[in-house]
Specification:
Bound molecules: iron/sulfur cluster
Number of helices: 26
Distance between the termini: 58 Å
Strand order of the largest sheet: 1-2-3-4-5-6-8
């Protein structure tokens, strides 16, 4: 192995980079020297070996004579799955412990080993189970894997998945978040591994409590309960109560799975200067569980983005699929999330029970065009049939059938074309293994198939039903993901700063984007200018729930947009709805600059180092000032607080929920 590393270093001393083909020939040349039957060398093992030598055998490492530049090129050459960190940050997905969900949607998986809607053989779920669903252990395992695969780990986006976040007790939410930060604060050592004693002590605690992490043992223990759930004798929630709430082992774990705010805040403060900083924290919940109070808690946890299961806006489909939400609740949840500054990530499904391809296209078009919704990101999930769900009976009776591949592609292509330039389609399938899907799409390259169909439509307009009638106007994809400049070098002089403004039910939004001549995007910022005059109409229904009587007292003049409330009345209105901001405060909801992840302390050629973020913030401040706003907030992640302090956001607002700058 060391000889191969030396071969690679010799190559990199003579060349700027090592193409994959050259790396393969170096490996093959060394393989040929191995005795027959000996295991072949693999690229995967090279970087861990290099890191181990550097950390534990300094004499040998010094003899290799590797300076910082050469090491950077070596790590780049040995990096596994480079796309994983190509969009700007390294992502770590963690899963909460199994727990009930207060809904029971028809299509939703009921795997009793997992939180509602997840399946034990999804990759992140397998990792979570092996780590007892402990947030610290999950982060440690992932961080270690990323470091050993050669990925920079200084900017981390944490994605917390699992049923409905707001259904977990607040003390568990605080503990979970504190442990995430704590794991990143402890971090990997120079050889890319975690302190083994710390991990062993944590594992021992769960083992001593009697919690299992072995896949076969877990499957055997869950089987009888799973069979009862699948046969309809038990609900998922009832099985969960037996397996977890009443289990002595899990009850014991619950005694250490809670924390108070000061503990979390201390971990957050430490993360501001940690080596692995949190640049985004995402949770998922249902629209009907969102209110001002829960959002304040979520924000205090350090969260910056909310994933929300919308699935459909059609009331008939919502009812038939036993979704406990109404479109009005979804609209209010969008309005509140926006006013709190969160990025809004909507999940949307095609092919639900009762859906048609034409209806699905109309439904999605409404999501991305109606000012009450307009998500920042979307996950498109075609409905699939999973054992143990209520949908099985509908399938057996012929009331539900999966769309044909052609129908599904037709819907997805129409959805992509309908998506505006400020929305990102982050996924088109759920990560469900094909073995779990009884009927429905099993193709993992669905997005590629959609892209190919769009390509064909561009080449021969009118070929597909969804194609444009006008051959001079081929279909144009405007959504963000298709336009991202991921790894290429960018000539900053070739970029222009475009302002795409749009109206929502509660704000005027400015999507500021750095774009090339052909529309590719190098970075963007989301600025929200809240509109007090639209508040009552958008949040209608909350008054009754809050008992605030805000609508009654204020009348409905503002709803019609006739008159903006006077400043004091507007502030009063914001406070009555439990909003943490004042009416004259603008909000930066997101700043994102693309480019291969670069170490915070080093300069690099990626677009992150060209001052694009700073210029976006300056333009946002200028726009907010010109529109009459007195202050501007930013919903910063914990690890980006220092960055925003450097840009003049020198104080906090709303009890520390935001960083603020006077305009
Ligand atoms: S709300 Fe989400 S997790 Fe709960 S049952 Fe419905 S789809 Fe499943």
């Amino acid at each position: 192995m060391d000889e191969i590393l030396q071969d690679i270093l010799a190559y990199l001393r003579a060349h700027d980079e090592l193409p994959e083909k050259e790396l393969k020939s170096i490996l093959h040349a060394r393989d040929r020297l191995l005795p027959p039957g000996a295991p072949r060398y693999s690229k995967k093992a090279l970087l861990p070996r290099y890191l181990a030598v550097r950390a534990h055998d300094p004499e040998l490492w010094r003899s290799w004579n590797v300076d910082a530049g050469l090491e950077r090129r070596l790590v780049a050459a040995l990096r596994m799955k480079p796309r994983r960190t190509a969009s700007g940050v390294a992502t770590i997905t963690v899963i909460t412990k199994p727990g009930p969900c207060s809904s029971n949607c028809l299509y939703c998986p009921n795997d009793v080993r997992m939180p509602k809607s997840y399946l034990a053989d999804e990759p992140a779920c397998q990792r979570a189970e092996r780590a007892f669903f402990d947030p610290y252990l999950q982060v440690a395992a992932r961080l270690q894997a990323l470091a050993q695969m050669g990925h920079p780990t200084d900017k981390i986006e944490l994605i917390v998945l699992g049923g409905t976040w707001t259904d977990y007790p607040t003390a568990y939410q605080i503990w979970f978040a504190a442990e995430l930060f704590r794991a990143l604060n402890d971090g990997v050592r120079a050889d890319g591994t975690f302190e083994p004693e710390a991990l062993a002590a944590r594992r021992a605690r769960y083992e001593q409590a009697g919690i299992e992490a072995d896949d076969a043992a877990l499957a055997a223990a869950a089987r009888p309960w799973q069979e009862r759930v699948n046969a309809g004798f038990l609900t998922y929630n009832e099985a969960c109560a037996i397996l977890y709430d009443k289990s002595p082992a899990w009850r014991q774990a619950a005694t250490w799975q809670d924390a108070l705010w000061p503990e979390l805040e201390e971990a957050q403060r430490a993360n501001e200067s940690a080596r692995h900083r949190v640049v985004g924290l995402v949770i998922e919940t249902r629209p009907d569980r969102i209110d001002a109070e829960s959002l304040a808690v979520i924000r205090r946890l350090g969260c910056t983005k909310i994933q929300m299961g919308v699935q459909t806006l059609d009331p008939a489909l919502l009812a038939r699929n036993r979704r406990r939400t109404a479109p009005e609740q979804v609209a209010r949840a969008f309005a509140l999330c926006r006013l709190f500054g969160f990025k809004i990530h909507a999940h949307f499904m095609a092919n639900l029970l009762g859906a048609t391809p034409a209806g699905d296209k109309r439904d999605y078009a409404r999501l991305v065009a109606d000012p009450s919704f307009l998500p920042d990101e979307v996950k498109l999930y075609p409905c699939a049939l999973v054992a143990g769900t209520g949908l099985v009976a509908e399938y057996d009776s012929g009331r539900w059938r999966p769309y044909t591949e052609d129908e599904l592609l037709d819907v997805l292509v129409a959805d992509v074309l309908a998506t505006p330039p400020y929305t990102r389609i982050s996924r088109m399938i759920r990560d469900i293994s094909s073995g779990d899907i009884l009927a429905g799409n099993k193709k993992t390259n669905l997005r590629q198939m959609v892209d190919q169909r769009l390509e064909r439509m561009r080449a021969r307009p009118g070929l597909d039903a969804a194609g444009p009638a006008d051959p001079d106007r081929p279909p144009r994809v405007r959504e963000i993901r298709a336009r991202e400049i991921v790894r290429e070098r960018v000539d900053v002089d070739a970029l222009t700063l475009d302002d795409c403004a749009y109206e929502t039910s509660v704000s005027t939004e400015h999507f500021l984007q750095w774009v090339t001549d052909d529309g590719r995007i190098a970075g963007f910022l989301r600025l929200s200018l809240p509109r007090a005059d639209r508040l009552q109409a958008a949040l209608r229904g909350l008054d009754a729930a809050n008992g605030s009587g805000a609508a009654d007292e204020k009348g409905d003049g503002a709803e019609k947009g006739a008159q903006a409330p006077a400043p004091a009345a507007a502030d009063d209105l914001f406070a009555r709805y439990g909003l943490p901001i004042r009416a004259d405060e603008a909000m930066i909801r997101e700043v994102h600059v693309y480019g291969a992840v670069a170490h915070l302390s080093q300069t690099g050629s990626g677009v992150q180092h060209l001052g694009l973020g700073r210029k976006l913030v300056e333009r946002a401040c200028a726009l907010a000032r010109a529109a009459g706003y007195a202050r501007i907030n930013v919903i910063s992640a914990v690890g980006t607080r220092g960055y925003y302090r450097g840009l003049g956001f020198d104080r906090t607002s709303a009890g520390g929920l935001y960083q603020q700058k006077e305009l």
